[in-house]
Design a protein that fits this description.
single chain; alpha+beta; Creatine Amidinohydrolase; 5-stranded antiparallel β-sheet; about 30% helix; binds magnesium ion
Length: about 250
């Protein structure tokens, strides 16, 4: 069952989302060629701890870090490592969760390391566009399929692969709650109600749809080794415009 969030739950989710947005701000400001993905994880941990939040990912099903770092053909769930060094021309998807007041914020963003190719720029632009096309449909009276269809339409128009094994999800007291949200239409006509919170997160590929999990049991990679991008926001449905929870909120600064 999908549960509507109460006023108090929403307040804490905004705060958790704010902290997640602060982590992304720090990622953007500090990210450069020559640093390791472990360096990024250390920065994320500092931001989360200094804001008195809990890194949601750390220990989640045994995950050993507080962010996922997925470079180029890696799609999601990459594990930060001191041996993994960012190179000029890479793109990196960084996914982070923070828990505050018992509530979770979850957001991922793809970043360019220095100058990147035009095709990688297009991949990032289109994936972000598909996220916002999905977000626009997150309103009371629409259905989950309206979100899925909007994401799929952008990917199809731009001839991008759509990762099918992973998708968006309800979020709240835990990171993954009902419903599962596909990034392509499956005809799920479950109505969206004001008070629902869903993490919307398209993962698009420059090549085909297919992905595989590496032998570390975490990192997901495209089978054709073409680059992949990932953008995610935690979004609240209202009777009016959808509210992005994973942004910087002035009231918490
Ligand atoms: Mg995430
Ligand atoms: Mg998520």
């Amino acid at each position: 069952m999908i549960k509507k969030k109460s006023r108090d739950e929403i307040k804490h989710m905004r705060h958790a989302g704010h902290i997640v947005a602060l982590v992304h701000k720090a990622m953007k400001e500090n990210l450069h060629a020559g640093m390791s993905t472990k360096d990024l994880d250390d920065i994320a941990m500092d931001v989360i701890k200094s804001n008195r939040a809990i890194p949601t990912f750390l220990g989640y099903n045994g995950f050993p870090a507080c962010i996922c770092t997925s470079i180029n053909e890696n799609v999601v769930h990459g594990i930060p490592s001191k041996d993994e060094i960012l190179q000029e021309g890479d793109i990196i998807a960084i996914d982070v969760g923070a828990t505050y007041g018992g509530m979770v914020g979850d957001s991922a963003w793809s970043y360019a390391v220095g100058e990147i190719s035009e095709e990688k720029q297009r991949l990032m632009r289109v994936t972000e566009e598909s996220l916002f096309a999905g977000i626009k449909q997150m309103r009371a009276g629409n259905t989950l399929d309206d979100i899925s269809k909007a994401i799929e339409a952008v990917a199809v128009r731009e001839k991008m692969g759509i990762v099918r094994q992973y998708g968006g999800h309800g979020v709240g007291h835990t990171m993954h709650e009902e419903p599962f949200l596909y990034n392509y239409s499956v005809g799920n006509h479950t109505p969206i109600k004001a008070g629902y919170v869903i993490a919307i997160e398209p993962m698009l590929n420059l090549g085909g749809d297919d992905v595989e999990v590496l032998s570390n049991d975490w990192t997901v990679r495209t089978v054709d080794r073409k680059p992949s991008a990932h953008f995610e926001h935690t979004v609240l449905a209202t009777d009016g415009e959808p509210e992005l929870m994973t942004t910087i909120h002035e009231e918490f600064l």
